[in-house]
Amino acid sequence: MNRLNLIWLQNKVVAIAWAIFLVALPVTSFPLFPSGLGGETLVRPLSLYPLVVLLLFGTIPNLFSRRLPKTFLPLFAFCCVALISSAFALTNRSDVFLGISLPARVLRNLISLGLGLAYYLTVSLTPRSWDELKSTLRWVYIGFGIALAWGTLQAVYVVYLYSPYFELLKTLQIFISTRRLFPTRISGMTYEPKWFADQICFLLLPWLLSSVVQGQSIFRWRYRRISIEVILLIWSVIVLLFTFSRTGMAILVGYAFVIFLVFRSQSASQRTANQAMPQWRRRMVEALIAVLLLGIVIIGVGSQNRYFSRFWTYFTESEQIGPNRTYLEYIGFRQRFAYAETAFRVYEAFPVLGVGLGNYAFHFKEMLPDLPWSRFPEVIRYITPDEDAPRLITPKNLYARLLAETGLAGTILFTTFVLAVLGCALYLWFSSSKEQKVWGMGGLLALMVFPVLVFSFDSFALPNLWVVFGLITAAAHLPGPDVLGSRQKPDYQGKVL
């Protein structure tokens, strides 16, 4: 087999693995995972299997033939700080917590960070032209189309709980996720409803909203103003409501406000320019009306779910709740603040480099604030040495974890990486190319959501963060479509054919 045939075969393998990788993204807790690949953790992305193929045949060869994006520099520096911090932790302590040794926990978390790095580099380097970037988004939409269809089937039993139907879907879910379905909320193909809502809000909605607002589509089919993106957008919002995720609902309201206030089509701006009401005031009124209408829908839907309706039932059921239970306790937020406060206390004790990746758990009990935790069963389970106690203790807040485990040095470097990705999104948004502006607006919307999501997740192995940042980076580092033409495809060395 000559060299050209080998190149053709390599490109075919990468293309097939890339499509499978993107379609598999919605599956984040795949049960058929060997223990050596993270089979004992909650995060078990199905996309890890095609990622291995992509690393061997695409990402690693690209490291020697293509220039790395500059956004990689602060991320690489952050990884070095995390490695140094973890090495110091290994030399200073030799604890065992709930049956897990410190070296085992450090190794597991370094592997998780390595997976995140692999996700980011793979997504950043694999698309080599604007056509390939569009194809990437199509495969993402296909994967989420399957996830939305599965979520729609789950929404049926939320509306009307028919036990045989629910038991059938619960049995099928065993082959998709490690956690069983909730009878009152939908989980899609993820571990829990909140994970599904985060996926929709962060991985899907930014690109759909950007395409719809700017009237662009990556598909040929269109009927008047109806495109595939419009259908997926409406479908996604409806499915999102049935997750009853409080974070997801808040993000949805935020999207509505920002879209009407800031991101408006040029034609809409021109129509309102000559109105008696100033344009900025008109946009503000429209944004508030959109938020009000969406809020009415959310409250109407949320009132059917006791978990979600806790936001307002606290004030109407005070006699049943008891006088000593605070609002934050009732809605389940107080323990989350406790985890973050504990992480900050760890940071204060180790401010420069932190305690090393994963080692927050070894300081959790001693740094926990002195409060009456007997009212919080979740916290008690974490600090009680029981065989059935949960073994994975994390701050459940990305920046709290960064401060505790990598110190000020790691937090600054990771923030620099995020700001570098923000720079890529701004570059795309201010471009004169319509295609680049679509990616720029999608990137800005995703980065607007990121500060909200960091308060409820802290895993480096979850693909969402790395895929979104990788897509923004890939779009920003491709030559403008107006310069090269979107149909020109580079060969394996990045040269235009």
Account of the 3D structure:
By secondary structure, the chain is mostly helical. The chain is 65% helix and 2% strand. Strand 1 and strand 2 (100-101) form a beta hairpin. Helix 3 (72-92) runs antiparallel to helix 18 (398-429), helix 7 (193-213) packs parallel to helix 20 and helix 18 (398-429) runs parallel beside helix 20 (463-476). The longest helix has 32 residues, at 398-429.
Along the chain, the helix and strand elements come as HHHEEHHHHEEHHHHHHHHHHHHHH
Quick one: overall form?
Answer: globular
Helix content: 55-70%
Give the averaged pLDDT, no decimals: 83
Q: Summarize the biggest pleated sheet.
A: 2 strands, antiparallel
What fraction strand?
Answer: under 5%
Total helical segments? 21
User: Can you count the beta strands?
Assistant: 4
Structural class: mainly alpha
Strand order of the largest sheet: 1-2
As residue ranges, the low-confidence spans are 483-497
The Rg value, from CA coordinates, equals 24 Å
Question: Concise description?
Answer:
With 497 residues, this protein is mostly helical. Helices cover 65% and strands 2% of the residues. The strands form two sheets. Strands 1-2 form a two-stranded antiparallel ribbon. It has a two-stranded antiparallel ribbon with strand order 3-4.
